[in-house]
Specification:
Elements lengths: L1 H17 L4 H13 L5 H15 L7 H14 L3 H12 L5 H17 L2 H7 L1 H10 L4 H11 L10 H9 L5 H30 L12 H24 L4 H19 L8 H32 L1 H12 L3 H18 L2 H18 L4 H15 L7 H10 L3 H24 L2 H9 L3
Helix pairs in contact: 1-2, 2-14, 3-14, 4-13, 4-14, 5-6, 5-12, 6-7, 6-8, 6-9, 6-11, 7-19, 8-9, 9-19, 9-20, 10-17, 11-18, 11-20, 11-21, 12-13, 14-17, 15-17, 16-17, 16-18, 17-18, 18-20
Organism: Bacillus swezeyi
GO molecular function: transmembrane transporter activity
InterPro entries: DctM, TRAP_DctM
């Protein structure tokens, strides 16, 4: 029965995706087909609908549309150029300063927007042509943009951590955020170290003096946007407000910033901004509902327990088990977006991780880190395709320049996986 259910689930899902059916519909239909193995059609349909509705009837999920709306307001508020200028100040006059600017800009913008694609497009769209103009190889510039874009997805406020907290049964959002800070910054630093070495070897130019003339104006315009990150995290850590309340505060702060401070959004644009937020929220909520149905179908047919036994049967060595989990998650990340991957595979891998004594916060961080890495990994990582398009280079042209960055990211991934202190020391220090 388990083997039959697994084959139906995987094959129906794969076929539907292959013919172009949206992923949420593919998940729901394949899950229903699996449930029909055991239940009659009327009970199966009723139970499935009930499960999908119940899965999104959660107070914690209110944070998701609010953070999405905040990110869209910031994205439409024209802060990318301001963050680029601010990043130039931080990058300094060192070899590869423009590539460092790209990395810092992606990290800041990605954390604010919770989207690697938005960061790659907004920051990379400015920085890649600028680097080429200053004598940088365009393929190298595109590789830097691609490799650094997902860093912001693990720097809070991250909707991925919020979804993981909900699906994993209440893992501390504050602890996940703090661990994500450390890992996200380390990701950015890893890319910058590789960029520095390559830029020094190739003798790429640094930012010219005239770039940093109006330092006060640059800082004054950029810091309010960056403060959003610290306001959200500071409020959660001090107990002033919860993660859900923080998401609403993020919307209010973003609106005040874009409408009154930067004056880059008008009242006429608000309906369009709201429509974008509603559309994206609808997509994510449908994914959550469909993914919960898939989790129900797998649990109902005993698939997670069978997979857990299979993985644990490979070896009883935690090092080997973690390596297998990493490889599987990397593969999943190349073919599936982060949100649905979290929703589907957390119930499968969480019991395995806890079974070998992995801390839930540590597991959540390297789980999401794997999925983020997968977005820029061949053959079908979405971040790789978008970054190549933004850089106006073919994927096969950018793969070779990406190799040293892949190596650095993989080393970071292994360190985070096998040394839990990296992701846990800050949460533990703060008593989370």
């Amino acid at each position: 029965m388990i083997l039959q259910a697994s084959l139906i689930l995987v094959l129906v899902f794969a076929v539907l995706l292959a013919v172009g059916i949206p992923i949420a519909i593919s998940i729901a239909v394949s899950s229903l087909a699996t449930i029909l193995l055991i239940l009659p059609i009327d009970i199966a349909v009723f139970s499935s609908a009930q499960k999908m509705v119940a899965s999104i009837d959660s107070f914690s999920l209110i944070a998701v549309p609010f953070f999405i709306l905040s990110g869209i307001i910031m994205n439409n508020g024209g802060i990318a150029a301001k963050l680029v200028d601010f990043s130039k100040l931080l990058a300094g006059r060192v070899p590869g300063s423009l590539s460092h600017t790209n990395v810092i800009g992606n990290s800041l913008f990605g954390s604010i927007s919770s989207s690697a694609i938005a960061a790659s497009t907004a920051i990379g769209g400015v920085m890649v042509p600028l680097q080429e103009k200053e004598g940088y190889d365009r393929k190298f510039a595109a590789a830097v943009n691609i490799a650094s874009a997902p860093a912001g997805m693990v720097i809070p406020p991250s909707t991925g951590f919020i979804i993981f907290s909900l699906i994993s049964g209440g893992t501390s959002i504050a602890a996940l955020f703090m661990g994500g800070y450390v890992v996200g910054v380390l990701w950015a630093l890893a890319i910058m170290i590789v960029s520095y070495i390559i830029a020094k070897k190739r003798k790429y130019p640094v930012v010219t003096e005239k770039t940093n003339l109006n330092v006060k104006k640059i800082v004054w315009e950029a810091v309010p946007s960056i403060l959003l990150i610290f306001i959200i995290i500071g409020g959660i850590l001090t107990g002033v407000f919860t993660a859900v309340e923080a998401s609403a505060i993020a919307v209010v702060y973003s609106f005040i910033l874009a409408f009154f401070f930067y004056k880059t959004i008008t009242l006429k644009q608000l309906p369009h901004v709201m429509a974008q937020a509603v559309e994206m929220t609808g997509v994510i909520m449908l994914l959550i509902a469909a993914s919960s149905l898939m989790s129900f179908a797998m649990a109902f047919t005993g698939i997670p327990a069978a997979l857990s036994s299979l993985v644990l049967g490979i070896s009883d060595n935690p090092i080997i088990i973690l390596l297998v989990m990493n490889l599987v998650l990397l593969l999943i990340g190349t073919v599936m977006d982060v949100a649905p991957a979290i929703l589907i595979f957390t119930p499968i891998f969480m019991p395995i991780a806890t079974g070998i004594g992995i801390d839930p916060v540590h597991f959540g961080i390297f789980f999401i880190l794997n999925l983020c890495v997968g977005t820029i990994t061949p053959p079908v990582g979405t971040g790789l395709f978008v970054g190549s398009s933004v850089g106006k280079v073919k994927i096969e042209q950018v793969l070779k320049p990406l190799l040293p960055f892949y190596a650095a990211i993989f080393v970071l991934l292994m360190l985070v996986t096998y040394f839990p202190q990296i992701s846990l020391f800050l949460p533990n220090l703060l008593g989370l």
